[in-house]
Write a structure and sequence with these properties.
By secondary structure, the chain is mainly α. It has helices at about 40-45, 50-55, 90-95, 100-120, 125-135, 140-150, 155-175. The two termini are about 25 Å apart.
């Protein structure tokens, strides 16, 4: 695949929230630059959506394509890779309706995720925090961050992460959501 450079690698062509992916938030050689970021083609040489885009309208987001919605978006994907695909169709619908507002909400989700990773990660919570940042309503994420910031300073990272994992389980159960990837 020839190099694809996009203005916004944090929100993908196909509707994934790249900035909420564990690989985007990784350190070292496994870090992904996001959709169309520097080095994307090397990490994802056969991206079907990028290939399709190249053959069609060469848009920034699939919802801008003249063929949208195409077969790819007729039904929800039943499996995930590194990031949850559960919200792809709704992400694209929200972005199509008001891209600036969607990007502002995505930026806030990313800020909350970074706060959780920096201050409340026991080294094993990244995947869960990424799923939560992607799949939970923004209001629930705001409440989770408030809960995190109210934890006693004397708690170590492992204790803080355990408390937040319990809170995430409670929130997910209340919302009827399952915070895990579908393989």
């Amino acid at each position: 695949m020839e190099t694809m450079i996009r203005k916004d690698p944090l929100f993908s062509l196909c509707g994934l929230n790249c900035c909420l992916c564990p690989r985007f938030n990784a350190e070292g050689s496994s870090t992904c630059p996001g959709c169309g970021g520097e080095g994307f083609a090397r990490l994802h040489p056969t991206c079907a959506v990028a290939t399709c885009n190249k053959k069609h309208d060469k848009v920034e987001y699939c919802f801008q394509c003249s063929a949208y919605p195409c077969k790819k978006y007729e039904s929800e994907s039943g499996c995930d890779s590194f990031i949850s695909y559960k919200r792809v169709r709704s992400n694209l619908a929200e972005a199509k309706s008001d891209l600036a507002a969607y990007r502002a909400r995505l930026d806030r989700r990313h800020e909350i995720l970074r706060s959780l990773l920096e201050g409340y990660n026991d080294g094993r919570a990244k995947g869960l925090y990424c799923l939560a940042a992607n799949d939970l309503p923004l209001e629930s994420l705001e409440l989770l961050l408030e809960k995190a910031e109210s934890l006693p300073r004397a708690m170590d990272a492992k204790q803080k992460a355990a408390a937040l994992k319990d809170e995430l389980a409670r929130i997910a159960a209340e919302l009827g959501l399952e915070l895990k990837l579908r393989k």
